[in-house]
Hints:
3-stranded antiparallel sheet, mainly alpha, Arc Repressor Mutant, subunit A, transcription
Amino acid sequence: MKLTQQRNWNCDDPRKRQHWAEATTEALRVLEGKWKIVIICQLFAAKGPIRFSSLEKQIDGINQKMLIQQLKQLEKDRIVLRTVYPQVPPKVEYELSGMGYALGPSMQALIEWAEMRRTLID
């Protein structure tokens, strides 16, 4: 499966356009919520595994319960990998999965779009 594809948006096939809409809706569902994009950005910046406590410190305004919940959802959706080390006290690290890293070009495009939109509105 090719992760980046050029699209012919002048598609006459309504089923294909519906498929695109459904795929986009599914992708946005995986990323929806106040904290998921923030978490993903922090994991991109970490460039490798990061401990839970470090991640929590880097995200202003998030509480531990919400961070755990969002990380569990991202792990379930295969965006984040969780590694537990059997030691006392427990050591847990998080990092982006291959699927998470594949979000890079899309995240970059969204950032550029958001900055362009912000410039036009201001």
